Amino acid sequence: MDCEQHNKGKNHGCQGQHKDTDRKLKDFTEDFTLVNRLAKIDHKIMVLSGKGGVGKSTVAVNIAVALALAGKQVGILDVDFHGPSIPTLLKLNGNPVKAGDDGIEPVDFVEGIKVMSIGFFMPEQDRAVIWRGPMKISVIKQLLAEVSWGHLDYLVIDFPPGTGDEPLSVAQLIPDADGAVIVTTPQDLSLVDVRKSIDFCKQLKLPVLGVIENMSGLVCPHCGQVIDVFKRGGGEKMAGEMGVPFLGRIPIEPLIVEASDNGKPFLYHYGKTPAAEAFAGAIKPILEMAAK
After folding, report:
1. How large is the greatest C-alpha to C-alpha distance in the chain, in angstroms?
2. Backbone phi, then psi, for 158, in 5-degree steps?
3. HSE (CB half, 13 Å, CA atoms) of 2?
4. Where are the domains of the chain?
5. Are strands 107-108 and 114-117 parallel, antiparallel or unpaired?
6. Which helix (H) or strand (E) holds 249?
């Protein structure tokens, strides 16, 4: 090997070492910032479901609103890369993301709720996100480390359905998470998949705070009677069989659809309805965390 080739090899080695050092420094800084951010959040609640279309994001939003109405400082983090629903449910689509002195600033909503969604970073609502697992994990870590939440009593994290990269990553990045609220509908088609979410939590030693049975009966707008469209009681029965708490049933309520389409948190605007009362009852065990 001549001198030129020898020096080239050395230069390549040095460049590789510099890149490795830079990467380690970046990871260390990110980890340090992540720990500091999470230390200011008293309780972290994951909202999961093994099945899509069960109203998980609607439940997540209304849990957050119920906690805020109880006087708590609350944040919502939406990490559903393939269908971020929180901006639509709160009519925050197109909201520009701002960087402050202390990091990315969450968007303020009613009752002081702070909101951050992967949807805020998408230039077009109809654009599909086609990312592999490592990219998702990197972005989730970045969101957790760089969003300037300040002090929160509760951070409610909304996930895509299933037991994939997103819930696994957050469970690993937040080892002290209080646990998961599992959302299902009453029929067997949903329960089969939702059982997997409970097993996922057990395998990761993530506490299951309880099961919410959503769309549990239709409240007739004319007579007020409940029609069991998707059967009734399946979520409660499953919770009992799997040894986890049952938090309550949320009936189908036409006003929930109307409120969601208009970007109005249902619980905030229609607090006297049977569905709102069911939501309020479902969060009691979550509220009790603050008293411990």
Report:
1. 92
2. -100, 130
3. 1
4. 23-182+255-284
5. antiparallel
6. strand 246-252
3-class DSSP assignment, residue 138: helix
Q: Report which secondary-structure segment, H or E, holds 216.
A: strand 208-219
Q: What is the pLDDT of residue 3?
A: 47
| pLDDT averaged over 10-residue windows placed end to end, the chain, 292 residues | 51 59 57 90 95 92 91 95 90 85 91 92 77 87 92 96 90 92 94 95 95 88 81 91 95 86 84 85 85 64
- The amino acid that residue 206 corresponds to is L
- Pick the closest to residue 280 from 238, 247, 236, 233 (CA basis): 247
CB atoms within 10 A of CB 140: 23
CA dist 219 → 94, 255, 274 (Å) = 34, 10, 8
Which residue(s) pair with 77 in the sheet? Answer: 116, 157
- Read out DSSP for 102-118? TEEEPEE-GGG-EEEEG
pLDDT, residue 38, reads: 93
Domain 23-182+255-284 homologous superfamily, CATH: P-loop containing nucleotide triphosphate hydrolases (3.40.50.300)
pLDDT at 29: 59
Q: Who's near 81: CB < 8 A, 6+ residues apart? A: 118, 129, 131, 136, 139, 160, 166
pLDDT value, residue 292: 62
- CB-based contacts of 177, cutoff 8 Å, min separation 6: 44, 45, 46, 170, 171, 206
Task: State the Rg of the chain over Cα.
Answer: 22
